[in-house]
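README: folding subset

This subset contains proteins for which both the sequence and a predicted C-alpha cell string are available. Records are stored as plain text. Below is the entry for Olfactory receptor 10J1-like (310 residues), shown exactly as it appears on disk.
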Amino acid sequence: MKRENHTLVTEFVFQGFSSFHEHKLTLFVVFLTLYLLTLAGNVIIVTIISIDRHLHTPMYFFLSMLSTSETTYTLAIVPRMLSSLIGLSQPISLAGCATQMFFFITLAINNCFLLTAMGYDRYVAICNPLRYLVIMSKRVCAQLVLGACSIGLIVAIIQISSVFRLPFCNRKVAHYFCDIRPVMKLSCADTTVHDVINFIISSLVIVVPMGLVFISYILIISTILKIASAEGRKKAFATCASHLTVVIVHYGCASIAYLKPKSENTRDQDQLISVSYTIFTPLLNPVVYTLRNKEVKDALYRAIGKKFLA
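--- output ---
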C-alpha cells in the first residue's frame, strides 16, 4: 500500500499564502509592483554598464553579472507566486519542481559568491591600488564569475539529486515555490540524513563567502584608517558603502532563512522570511547602486541627456 502511495505523487500543489486569504489581492499588487521595479532596475543597470565606457571596470562588470543573476532568479520564482495570489495557480510536475529548485539554488549561490568577488575587488582597489588593473584583469574577472556559477551548479545538482531520490506521499507544498525544506517534508522516508547534508551545504555556501567578505572588509577598514586626509577616508568608504549595504542585507536574510533550527518558525513566518530574499533583496541591488552610487547616477544622467539631445 505504501508503494502505491509513492507512485501516486507525480505533481505538487503550492499552498502559497493561504493563511493571508483576505489580503491576497493587496499582496498581489504590492509584490507585482516590487517585481516590476526589480526587473526595470536591473535591466537599467545592465544596460547603463554596457553602454557607458566609464563603467567598463571590474567592479561594474561584477555588478552587471549580479543584476543579470538576480533578474533570472526572480523570473524562476515570482511569476508563479503572483499567479497563485490571483487564483491561477496550477499544479507543478516533479520535473518542473526540480527545474525551479535547480535555478533557485544555482542562482542564489551564484549571487553569494558574486558578492564575495565584489568584496575582493574592493579589497584590491583600496589595499593594492597600484596593481589593481594587473590583478583584476579581464581573465581573472571572468574566472571569478565562472567559479561562482560553477559552485552554484555543482551544489544544485547534488541537492536536487538528493531530494528527488526520496519517495513522496504528500503533494501539498507549504510554500509558494519549490524550496528544499518544504519539499523534503512531503517525503514518506526519514529525511534526517538529508536534513543534515542540507544544513552543512547551506552553512558552507553562506558562511564561507560571508567570512571572506568579512575578512576583506577588516583589511579594507584597516587600510582606510591609515589614510591621512579625512577627504581621502571619506572617498574610500564611499566606494564600499553600496556593496557593504547589499552584503549585510543579502547574507542577513540568507542566514535567517537557512541557518536557523528547522522548527523554530511557523509556516507563515518562514514565508515572510522567504519574501525578503525573493522579492526585497533583488530590488535592493538596483536601488542601492542607483541612489547611493555617484558613478552609476552620472552614467544614467549622461544616457538620459544623450537621448534628449539626439
